[in-house]
Amino acid sequence: MHIRWTAVGLLALLAGSASAATLDELVAKNLEARGGAAKLEAIKTLKTSGKLLIGDQFELGFAQYQKAPESIRAEASLQGLTSVQAWDGREGWQISPFQGRKDPEKMSADDVKSLADEAPIGGALFDWKARGSKLEYLGTEDVDGTEAHKLKVTLKNGDVEYVYLDPDHYLEIRIVAQHNVRGTQVVRVSDYGDYEQVAGVYFPFSIATESKGDGGKQQVTIEHAEANVPMEDALFAFPAPAATKGAAK
Known about the structure:
Blueprint: H1 2-34, H2 37-42, E1 45-54, E2 58-67, E3 71-78, E4 81-87, E5 92-96, E6 101-106, H3 113-117, E7 134-143, E8 146-154, E9 160-165, E10 172-181, E11 184-198, E12 201-212, E13 217-227
Antiparallel strand pairs: 1-2, 1-13, 2-3, 3-4, 4-5, 5-6, 7-8, 8-9, 9-10, 10-11, 11-12, 12-13
């Protein structure tokens, strides 16, 4: 009986080792396909701009700023109005002129989750251990006819992202993100394509996102991207109150 259970234990250990090796191998191949750790690490800021299509009706100008380790600002502009959502690594805030709110207001911890999760320039898999994430390999799953590798990323804040890697190129083709917002699970499915190099690293220039539940859809098309553009921390921080008019000098 002792020999039998020892054998079972060894088999379980070997299976676990094989799973870990497969997981490490997939992450390594993804990193290599994107351009390598050194080039990713060298990108300290990333500015992208292009178009944002909401539903099939509204096309807005789009700009996004990212700064390592985890600051992000996204802007969408239409007819002279610009909405802003930003996260400086500690708190999030927004300006919502299309909802009639032109002054900056702070976002709740739940509402800012998805923005904060998108802040790291390298994405969910790059440097995942250092950021306190957990990673699991769940085998393969069909993604529009492609048997993609499926990885489960549990972020430090408790959010979960399912990352699907193309089996030939090992680049992300889909990410299913799950966030808990005020006790309700919000699911967003993002499909990635049109990868292009920026400073030697491949980034998706086409991102189509659908929010499950409300059916909201948007398509981001990147037309220009530039790495290591100077960015002040103030770009991401909640704006300081304007000086009171007529204040004593």
